[in-house]
Recover the amino acids of this structure.
């Protein structure tokens, strides 16, 4: 058990740091128009501080780092794409980064060590990031003008856009043969460890023959179906033999190092799944494992031309008329996002006090239940009307114009996905743990909101206030 950690706020009023005091302490004049300085003074640190402090119910133990330092560091890392070591180095050298994370004055020593970032990503889980993102969306200035929605008689049309995407995980492209070959090599390492630890004679594993057979398959350019099945059957036999050796060791009272336990359980599941698919001549199995080191990753069938299947967490997102995104659902398991539309509309009503005037979705959301719910609550759902086309030319032209405008406005969520993946770290998730991977995906949505819609809304409000003054 680790040491108990408590949280003590260093500032009871949760006030922002004084920019001029920070300048005096570091002996240089910082640019007040710097992006990190301006964003640090705009973000709702006070609300985030309260939510973060509620995670530490104890009153005794080691004092945790402040919320602004923890969350601010993760925001910088997600925005700039730094590794853990590079992040600490950049914060140590950059006074603007130090001001952003709440350091009292510029210092030449690093404020924390790189290894603590792993613990922070465990502590800052998905639920906390979702609450922080909701607080950010609720903190936008009122009376802003910029949006992507249509206007009717000078009033912005309340709009919600829903769609789903996959955040790809950084794993080797899964193939049944390579997965079994990896399982075999890991089992051989486990057998070698037990024999070396207890002074036992190594059993016959035929590892050289197995490796030679796999290389012969891997070097073939276009292996036939029969060749693939033969290689899978061969590798399954070697994996089965090694598993029997390990079970025999366990029956004789020998133990395996704890670092191998998770991989061993995963390999057992991989063996059962691959054996089932081989015997039944199928490529589908429940909870199919595609990576031994990351067994929580699942194949997500997307049906797209360039990527028919993706491997990572599936994210269901909704965007309002002002361009602010909220996470509706996030999971590594494959799911159908169509039935989640009603829940997303209810969430919109909870945050805005009313249902949207229109909801822009693709074909998968246009179920009878969703259409009936939208008609009952006065919501226009995008897509063609049910029934026969209108007979009047004016009506058909009006419907075509409305559909074209809906398609143009629905691109906003595709643009949002592109920004989150290209710029804010959701294009390839490199974290190894399931919880930290989900936290990274949620952080990319928060960062995209901070440096996108939130920044534009605040600048728009500041421009209006200066013009009025």
């Amino acid at each position: 058990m680790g040491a108990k950690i408590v949280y003590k706020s260093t500032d009871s009023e949760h006030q922002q740091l004084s920019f001029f005091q920070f300048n005096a302490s570091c002996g240089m004049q910082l640019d007040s128009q710097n992006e990190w300085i301006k964003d640090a003074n705009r973000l709702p640190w006070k609300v985030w501080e309260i939510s973060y402090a509620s995670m530490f119910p104890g009153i005794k133990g080691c004092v945790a780092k402040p919320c602004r330092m923890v969350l601010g560091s993760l925001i910088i890392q997600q925005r700039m794409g730094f590794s853990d070591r590079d992040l600490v180095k950049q914060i140590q050298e950059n006074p603007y980064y130090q001001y952003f994370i709440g350091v009292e004055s510029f210092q030449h020593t690093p404020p924390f060590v790189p290894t603590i970032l792993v613990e922070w990503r465990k502590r800052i889980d998905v639920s906390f990031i979702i609450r922080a993102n909701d607080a950010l969306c609720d903190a936008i200035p009122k009376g802003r003008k910029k949006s992507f929605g249509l206007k009717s008689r000078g009033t912005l049309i309340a709009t919600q856009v829903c769609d789903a995407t996959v955040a790809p995980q950084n794993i080797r492209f899964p193939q049944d043969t390579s997965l079994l070959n990896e399982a075999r090599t890991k089992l051989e390492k486990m057998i070698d460890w037990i024999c070396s630890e207890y002074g036992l004679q190594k059993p016959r594993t035929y590892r050289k023959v197995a490796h030679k057979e796999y290389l012969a398959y891997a070097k073939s350019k276009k292996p036939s179906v029969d060749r693939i099945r033969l290689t899978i059957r061969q590798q399954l036999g070697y994996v089965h033999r090694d598993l029997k050796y390990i079970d025999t060791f366990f029956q004789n009272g020998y133990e395996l190092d704890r670092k191998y336990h998770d991989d061993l359980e995963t390999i057992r599941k991989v063996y059962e799944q691959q054996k089932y698919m081989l015997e039944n001549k199928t490529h589908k199995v429940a909870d199919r494992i595609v990576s031994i080191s990351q067994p929580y990753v699942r194949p997500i069938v997307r049906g797209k031309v360039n990527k028919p299947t993706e491997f990572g967490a599936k994210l269901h997102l909704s965007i309002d008329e002002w361009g602010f995104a909220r996470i509706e659902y996030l999971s590594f398991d494959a799911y159908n996002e169509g039935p989640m539309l009603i829940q997303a509309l209810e969430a919109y009503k909870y945050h805005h006090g009313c249902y949207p005037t229109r909801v822009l979705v693709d074909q998968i959301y246009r179920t009878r239940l969703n259409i009936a719910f939208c008609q009952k609550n006065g919501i226009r759902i995008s897509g063609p009307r049910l029934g026969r086309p209108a007979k009047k030319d004016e009506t058909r032209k009006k419907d075509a114009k409305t559909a074209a405008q809906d398609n143009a406005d629905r691109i906003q969520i595709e643009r949002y996905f592109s920004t989150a993946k290209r710029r804010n770290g959701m294009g390839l998730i490199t974290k190894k743990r399931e919880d930290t991977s989900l936290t990274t995906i949620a952080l990319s949505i928060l960062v995209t909101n901070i440096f996108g819609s939130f920044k534009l809304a605040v600048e728009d409000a500041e421009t209006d206030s200066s013009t009025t003054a």
